[in-house]
Amino acid sequence: MADTFTEIVEKQELPYALINVIGGPDGVYEDHIEFLEKHLKLVTMQEYLKNKHVLNEKIQAIFMWAGKPGATRDLLEELRNLKVIAVSGVGIDHLDLELIFRFGIRVTNTPFEVSSSTADIGMALMLASARRVVEGYQIAISPDTKHFNIDWLGQEITGATLGIIGMGRIGYKVAQRAKAFEMKILYHNRNQRNEADEQAVGAVYCQKMEDLLAQADFVMLAVNLTPQTCKLIGRKELGLMKPTATLINICRGQVVDQDALLKALQTKTIKAAALDVTYPEPLPRGHALLELKNVIITPHIGSATSQARRHMMERMVESILAAVNGLPVTNEVHD
Ligand SMILES: O=C(O)C(=O)CO
Fold first, then answer.
1. What family does this chain come from, according to its entry (predicted)?
2. What pTM value is reported for the model?
3. Ligand 1 centroid vs 309 CA: distance in angstroms?
4. Domains of the chain
5. Which of 47, 103, 143, 320 is 20 to 30 Å from 156 at the Cα level?
Protein backbone atom coordinates (compact mmCIF):
# COMPACT_ATOMS: atom_id res chain seq x y z
CA MET A 1 0.00 0.00 0.00
CA ALA A 2 1.31 3.49 -0.84
CA ASP A 3 2.50 5.77 1.98
CA THR A 4 -0.27 8.26 1.38
CA PHE A 5 -2.82 5.52 1.92
CA THR A 6 -1.18 4.38 5.17
CA GLU A 7 -1.11 7.98 6.37
CA ILE A 8 -4.78 8.50 5.60
CA VAL A 9 -5.75 5.32 7.42
CA GLU A 10 -3.61 6.11 10.46
CA LYS A 11 -5.08 9.57 10.88
CA GLN A 12 -8.73 8.72 10.65
CA GLU A 13 -11.20 7.10 13.00
CA LEU A 14 -11.52 3.40 12.22
CA PRO A 15 -14.26 2.78 9.65
CA TYR A 16 -17.39 1.15 11.07
CA ALA A 17 -17.97 -2.27 9.55
CA LEU A 18 -21.06 -4.38 10.00
CA ILE A 19 -20.44 -8.07 10.68
CA ASN A 20 -22.94 -10.82 11.40
CA VAL A 21 -21.71 -12.30 14.68
CA ILE A 22 -18.41 -13.29 16.23
CA GLY A 23 -17.84 -17.04 16.33
CA GLY A 24 -20.26 -19.87 15.65
CA PRO A 25 -21.09 -21.31 12.24
CA ASP A 26 -22.27 -17.96 10.85
CA GLY A 27 -19.73 -15.67 12.42
CA VAL A 28 -16.28 -14.24 11.82
CA TYR A 29 -13.54 -16.25 13.50
CA GLU A 30 -12.51 -15.30 17.00
CA ASP A 31 -8.87 -15.77 15.90
CA HIS A 32 -9.32 -12.97 13.37
CA ILE A 33 -10.80 -10.47 15.78
CA GLU A 34 -7.54 -8.97 16.99
CA PHE A 35 -6.49 -8.15 13.42
CA LEU A 36 -9.95 -6.96 12.42
CA GLU A 37 -10.22 -4.64 15.40
CA LYS A 38 -6.89 -3.03 14.57
CA HIS A 39 -8.36 -1.77 11.32
CA LEU A 40 -12.14 -1.65 11.70
CA LYS A 41 -14.70 -0.70 14.27
CA LEU A 42 -16.72 -3.90 14.23
CA VAL A 43 -20.45 -3.73 14.76
CA THR A 44 -22.34 -7.01 15.09
CA MET A 45 -25.82 -7.32 13.63
CA GLN A 46 -27.21 -7.53 17.15
CA GLU A 47 -25.51 -4.26 18.17
CA TYR A 48 -26.66 -2.64 14.97
CA LEU A 49 -30.28 -3.60 15.48
CA LYS A 50 -30.21 -2.15 19.00
CA ASN A 51 -28.56 1.13 17.99
CA LYS A 52 -29.72 1.69 14.43
CA HIS A 53 -30.43 5.39 14.97
CA VAL A 54 -26.70 6.11 15.53
CA LEU A 55 -25.15 3.39 13.43
CA ASN A 56 -27.10 3.97 10.22
CA GLU A 57 -24.98 7.10 9.66
CA LYS A 58 -21.71 5.55 10.76
CA ILE A 59 -21.42 2.19 9.05
CA GLN A 60 -19.33 2.40 5.90
CA ALA A 61 -18.71 -1.24 5.17
CA ILE A 62 -20.35 -4.64 5.33
CA PHE A 63 -17.86 -7.39 6.12
CA MET A 64 -19.82 -10.23 4.52
CA TRP A 65 -18.39 -13.48 5.84
CA ALA A 66 -19.92 -16.68 4.42
CA GLY A 67 -22.72 -14.63 2.87
CA LYS A 68 -23.72 -12.90 6.10
CA PRO A 69 -25.05 -10.34 6.84
CA GLY A 70 -26.99 -10.36 3.57
CA ALA A 71 -27.28 -7.13 1.59
CA THR A 72 -31.05 -6.73 1.64
CA ARG A 73 -32.78 -3.73 0.14
CA ASP A 74 -33.93 -2.62 3.61
CA LEU A 75 -30.40 -2.70 4.95
CA LEU A 76 -29.00 -0.84 1.94
CA GLU A 77 -31.66 1.83 2.33
CA GLU A 78 -30.89 2.28 6.00
CA LEU A 79 -27.07 2.37 5.83
CA ARG A 80 -26.85 5.85 4.33
CA ASN A 81 -23.05 6.01 4.41
CA LEU A 82 -22.34 2.51 3.19
CA LYS A 83 -19.47 2.56 0.68
CA VAL A 84 -18.44 -1.03 0.23
CA ILE A 85 -19.49 -4.63 0.67
CA ALA A 86 -16.49 -6.90 1.12
CA VAL A 87 -17.45 -10.48 0.29
CA SER A 88 -15.46 -13.47 1.50
CA GLY A 89 -14.56 -15.98 -1.21
CA VAL A 90 -14.99 -15.75 -4.95
CA GLY A 91 -18.68 -16.51 -5.52
CA ILE A 92 -20.96 -13.49 -5.69
CA ASP A 93 -24.02 -15.32 -6.99
CA HIS A 94 -25.82 -14.62 -3.69
CA LEU A 95 -25.68 -10.86 -4.29
CA ASP A 96 -28.13 -8.68 -6.18
CA LEU A 97 -25.43 -6.63 -7.86
CA GLU A 98 -27.85 -4.53 -9.85
CA LEU A 99 -29.53 -3.42 -6.63
CA ILE A 100 -26.25 -2.80 -4.81
CA PHE A 101 -24.74 -0.78 -7.66
CA ARG A 102 -27.91 1.32 -7.81
CA PHE A 103 -27.03 2.48 -4.31
CA GLY A 104 -23.54 3.41 -5.55
CA ILE A 105 -21.93 0.83 -3.29
CA ARG A 106 -18.69 -0.88 -4.29
CA VAL A 107 -18.29 -4.65 -4.04
CA THR A 108 -15.10 -6.62 -3.54
CA ASN A 109 -14.35 -10.34 -3.23
CA THR A 110 -11.30 -12.53 -2.66
CA PRO A 111 -10.76 -14.70 -5.75
CA PHE A 112 -6.98 -15.03 -5.46
CA GLU A 113 -7.11 -16.10 -1.84
CA VAL A 114 -9.35 -19.15 -2.44
CA SER A 115 -8.00 -20.50 -5.72
CA SER A 116 -5.35 -22.88 -4.35
CA SER A 117 -7.50 -24.31 -1.59
CA THR A 118 -10.44 -24.82 -3.97
CA ALA A 119 -8.22 -26.48 -6.58
CA ASP A 120 -6.89 -28.72 -3.82
CA ILE A 121 -10.39 -29.85 -2.86
CA GLY A 122 -11.03 -30.64 -6.54
CA MET A 123 -7.96 -32.87 -6.60
CA ALA A 124 -8.86 -34.39 -3.24
CA LEU A 125 -12.35 -35.27 -4.48
CA MET A 126 -11.05 -36.67 -7.76
CA LEU A 127 -8.51 -38.87 -5.99
CA ALA A 128 -10.91 -39.89 -3.25
CA SER A 129 -13.55 -40.90 -5.78
CA ALA A 130 -11.13 -42.67 -8.12
CA ARG A 131 -9.47 -44.59 -5.31
CA ARG A 132 -12.70 -45.11 -3.32
CA VAL A 133 -11.18 -43.59 -0.22
CA VAL A 134 -14.48 -43.05 1.61
CA GLU A 135 -15.70 -46.60 0.94
CA GLY A 136 -12.24 -47.88 1.84
CA TYR A 137 -12.34 -46.05 5.14
CA GLN A 138 -15.73 -47.57 5.92
CA ILE A 139 -14.44 -51.07 5.13
CA ALA A 140 -11.30 -50.50 7.20
CA ILE A 141 -13.24 -49.45 10.31
CA SER A 142 -16.26 -51.75 9.97
CA PRO A 143 -16.63 -54.37 12.73
CA ASP A 144 -17.85 -56.76 9.97
CA THR A 145 -14.53 -56.62 8.13
CA LYS A 146 -12.62 -59.84 8.72
CA HIS A 147 -10.11 -59.57 5.87
CA PHE A 148 -9.28 -57.09 3.10
CA ASN A 149 -10.54 -58.10 -0.36
CA ILE A 150 -7.85 -57.92 -3.03
CA ASP A 151 -10.46 -57.67 -5.80
CA TRP A 152 -11.58 -54.31 -4.47
CA LEU A 153 -10.20 -51.93 -7.09
CA GLY A 154 -10.15 -48.25 -7.87
CA GLN A 155 -9.12 -46.27 -10.90
CA GLU A 156 -5.72 -44.67 -11.56
CA ILE A 157 -5.70 -40.99 -12.41
CA THR A 158 -2.23 -41.06 -13.95
CA GLY A 159 -2.68 -41.04 -17.71
CA ALA A 160 -6.44 -40.45 -17.43
CA THR A 161 -8.12 -37.53 -19.19
CA LEU A 162 -9.34 -34.63 -17.09
CA GLY A 163 -11.83 -32.23 -18.64
CA ILE A 164 -11.98 -28.89 -16.84
CA ILE A 165 -15.04 -26.76 -17.49
CA GLY A 166 -14.24 -23.18 -16.48
CA MET A 167 -10.56 -22.36 -16.87
CA GLY A 168 -10.35 -19.32 -14.61
CA ARG A 169 -8.01 -19.07 -11.64
CA ILE A 170 -9.32 -22.18 -9.93
CA GLY A 171 -9.60 -24.26 -13.10
CA TYR A 172 -6.06 -23.33 -14.05
CA LYS A 173 -4.73 -24.31 -10.64
CA VAL A 174 -6.48 -27.66 -11.01
CA ALA A 175 -4.70 -28.06 -14.36
CA GLN A 176 -1.32 -27.29 -12.77
CA ARG A 177 -1.93 -29.97 -10.16
CA ALA A 178 -3.28 -32.49 -12.70
CA LYS A 179 -0.16 -32.01 -14.85
CA ALA A 180 1.93 -33.22 -11.94
CA PHE A 181 -0.26 -36.36 -11.90
CA GLU A 182 0.54 -36.86 -15.61
CA MET A 183 -3.09 -36.46 -16.64
CA LYS A 184 -4.16 -35.46 -20.15
CA ILE A 185 -5.96 -32.15 -19.80
CA LEU A 186 -8.82 -30.80 -21.87
CA TYR A 187 -10.63 -27.61 -21.04
CA HIS A 188 -13.66 -25.66 -22.07
CA ASN A 189 -14.00 -21.98 -21.29
CA ARG A 190 -15.74 -18.93 -22.70
CA ASN A 191 -12.35 -17.72 -23.92
CA GLN A 192 -9.37 -19.77 -24.94
CA ARG A 193 -6.33 -19.17 -22.69
CA ASN A 194 -3.17 -17.90 -24.32
CA GLU A 195 -0.72 -20.37 -25.78
CA ALA A 196 1.83 -19.95 -23.01
CA ASP A 197 -0.77 -20.80 -20.34
CA GLU A 198 -1.93 -23.82 -22.30
CA GLN A 199 1.59 -25.08 -22.90
CA ALA A 200 2.62 -24.63 -19.28
CA VAL A 201 0.05 -27.22 -18.19
CA GLY A 202 -0.32 -29.11 -21.46
CA ALA A 203 -4.02 -28.25 -21.72
CA VAL A 204 -5.97 -28.59 -24.96
CA TYR A 205 -8.89 -26.27 -25.64
CA CYS A 206 -12.27 -27.72 -26.58
CA GLN A 207 -14.37 -25.00 -28.09
CA LYS A 208 -17.37 -27.30 -27.83
CA MET A 209 -18.10 -28.57 -24.34
CA GLU A 210 -19.59 -31.70 -25.93
CA ASP A 211 -16.15 -32.73 -27.21
CA LEU A 212 -14.70 -32.50 -23.74
CA LEU A 213 -17.61 -34.41 -22.19
CA ALA A 214 -17.24 -37.26 -24.67
CA GLN A 215 -13.53 -37.74 -24.01
CA ALA A 216 -12.94 -37.03 -20.32
CA ASP A 217 -12.56 -39.70 -17.64
CA PHE A 218 -13.05 -36.99 -15.04
CA VAL A 219 -15.05 -33.82 -15.63
CA MET A 220 -14.33 -31.03 -13.16
CA LEU A 221 -16.69 -28.05 -12.92
CA ALA A 222 -15.06 -24.76 -11.97
CA VAL A 223 -17.30 -22.05 -13.46
CA ASN A 224 -19.00 -19.10 -11.77
CA LEU A 225 -22.72 -19.50 -11.27
CA THR A 226 -24.46 -17.12 -13.67
CA PRO A 227 -27.74 -17.34 -15.59
CA GLN A 228 -25.66 -18.85 -18.44
CA THR A 229 -24.10 -21.59 -16.30
CA CYS A 230 -27.17 -22.51 -14.24
CA LYS A 231 -27.91 -26.21 -15.05
CA LEU A 232 -25.04 -26.19 -17.53
CA ILE A 233 -24.77 -29.93 -16.94
CA GLY A 234 -28.11 -31.63 -17.45
CA ARG A 235 -29.46 -34.88 -18.85
CA LYS A 236 -28.08 -34.29 -22.35
CA GLU A 237 -24.59 -33.40 -21.13
CA LEU A 238 -24.48 -36.33 -18.68
CA GLY A 239 -25.57 -38.58 -21.54
CA LEU A 240 -22.54 -37.47 -23.54
CA MET A 241 -20.12 -38.50 -20.80
CA LYS A 242 -18.48 -41.93 -20.79
CA PRO A 243 -20.19 -44.54 -18.59
CA THR A 244 -16.82 -44.86 -16.87
CA ALA A 245 -16.53 -41.12 -16.17
CA THR A 246 -16.78 -39.20 -12.89
CA LEU A 247 -18.25 -35.73 -12.43
CA ILE A 248 -16.57 -33.47 -9.87
CA ASN A 249 -18.23 -30.22 -8.84
CA ILE A 250 -16.27 -27.60 -6.90
CA CYS A 251 -18.19 -24.49 -7.99
CA ARG A 252 -21.92 -24.27 -7.26
CA GLY A 253 -24.58 -26.95 -6.96
CA GLN A 254 -26.93 -25.13 -9.32
CA VAL A 255 -24.48 -25.59 -12.22
CA VAL A 256 -25.70 -29.20 -12.35
CA ASP A 257 -29.29 -30.32 -12.83
CA GLN A 258 -29.27 -32.40 -9.68
CA ASP A 259 -32.28 -34.55 -10.59
CA ALA A 260 -30.63 -35.43 -13.89
CA LEU A 261 -27.40 -36.22 -12.05
CA LEU A 262 -29.20 -38.50 -9.63
CA LYS A 263 -30.80 -40.36 -12.51
CA ALA A 264 -27.49 -40.63 -14.38
CA LEU A 265 -25.84 -42.12 -11.30
CA GLN A 266 -28.69 -44.51 -10.56
CA THR A 267 -28.80 -45.77 -14.16
CA LYS A 268 -24.99 -45.89 -14.48
CA THR A 269 -25.01 -43.37 -17.34
CA ILE A 270 -21.91 -42.11 -15.55
CA LYS A 271 -19.78 -43.93 -13.03
CA ALA A 272 -19.59 -41.59 -10.07
CA ALA A 273 -19.83 -38.06 -8.74
CA ALA A 274 -17.76 -36.16 -6.20
CA LEU A 275 -19.41 -32.98 -5.00
CA ASP A 276 -18.21 -30.19 -2.77
CA VAL A 277 -21.38 -28.29 -3.58
CA THR A 278 -25.05 -29.23 -3.87
CA TYR A 279 -28.36 -27.46 -3.66
CA PRO A 280 -29.54 -26.96 -1.09
CA GLU A 281 -26.59 -27.18 1.28
CA PRO A 282 -26.72 -29.41 3.16
CA LEU A 283 -28.99 -31.78 1.27
CA PRO A 284 -32.02 -32.81 3.34
CA ARG A 285 -31.32 -35.98 5.32
CA GLY A 286 -32.53 -39.01 3.39
CA HIS A 287 -31.97 -37.32 -0.01
CA ALA A 288 -31.36 -40.00 -2.63
CA LEU A 289 -27.91 -38.62 -3.51
CA LEU A 290 -26.79 -39.30 0.05
CA GLU A 291 -27.71 -42.96 -0.30
CA LEU A 292 -25.60 -43.74 -3.37
CA LYS A 293 -22.30 -45.56 -3.01
CA ASN A 294 -20.89 -43.94 -6.13
CA VAL A 295 -21.25 -40.42 -4.73
CA ILE A 296 -19.03 -38.60 -2.27
CA ILE A 297 -20.01 -35.24 -0.86
CA THR A 298 -18.08 -32.71 1.20
CA PRO A 299 -19.69 -29.74 2.97
CA HIS A 300 -18.63 -26.90 0.62
CA ILE A 301 -15.08 -26.68 1.94
CA GLY A 302 -13.29 -25.22 -1.09
CA SER A 303 -11.92 -22.28 0.88
CA ALA A 304 -11.90 -24.02 4.26
CA THR A 305 -8.23 -23.92 5.17
CA SER A 306 -6.87 -21.74 7.92
CA GLN A 307 -4.48 -20.14 5.42
CA ALA A 308 -7.14 -19.28 2.84
CA ARG A 309 -9.57 -17.96 5.43
CA ARG A 310 -6.88 -15.77 7.03
CA HIS A 311 -5.84 -14.38 3.63
CA MET A 312 -9.48 -13.75 2.71
CA MET A 313 -10.06 -11.81 5.90
CA GLU A 314 -6.88 -9.72 5.42
CA ARG A 315 -7.79 -8.94 1.82
CA MET A 316 -11.31 -7.92 2.83
CA VAL A 317 -9.91 -5.48 5.39
CA GLU A 318 -7.49 -4.05 2.85
CA SER A 319 -10.28 -3.62 0.32
CA ILE A 320 -12.58 -1.94 2.86
CA LEU A 321 -9.87 0.52 3.88
CA ALA A 322 -9.15 1.34 0.25
CA ALA A 323 -12.81 1.70 -0.68
CA VAL A 324 -13.79 3.93 2.24
CA ASN A 325 -10.94 6.22 1.26
CA GLY A 326 -12.02 6.32 -2.36
CA LEU A 327 -8.91 4.48 -3.52
CA PRO A 328 -8.62 1.68 -6.10
CA VAL A 329 -9.52 -1.73 -4.73
CA THR A 330 -7.61 -4.81 -5.86
CA ASN A 331 -10.58 -7.11 -6.33
CA GLU A 332 -13.40 -4.80 -7.19
CA VAL A 333 -16.39 -6.52 -8.73
CA HIS A 334 -17.86 -4.69 -11.72
CA ASP A 335 -21.15 -5.41 -13.46
O1 LIG B 1 -15.14 -18.80 -2.57
C2 LIG B 1 -16.18 -19.36 -2.89
O3 LIG B 1 -17.14 -18.74 -3.37
C4 LIG B 1 -16.30 -20.80 -2.70
O5 LIG B 1 -17.38 -21.32 -2.82
C6 LIG B 1 -15.10 -21.63 -2.37
O7 LIG B 1 -15.46 -22.96 -2.24
1. Belongs to the D-isomer specific 2-hydroxyacid dehydrogenase family.
2. 0.94
3. 11
4. 16-113+305-333 (3.40.50.720), 115-297 (3.40.50.720)
5. 143
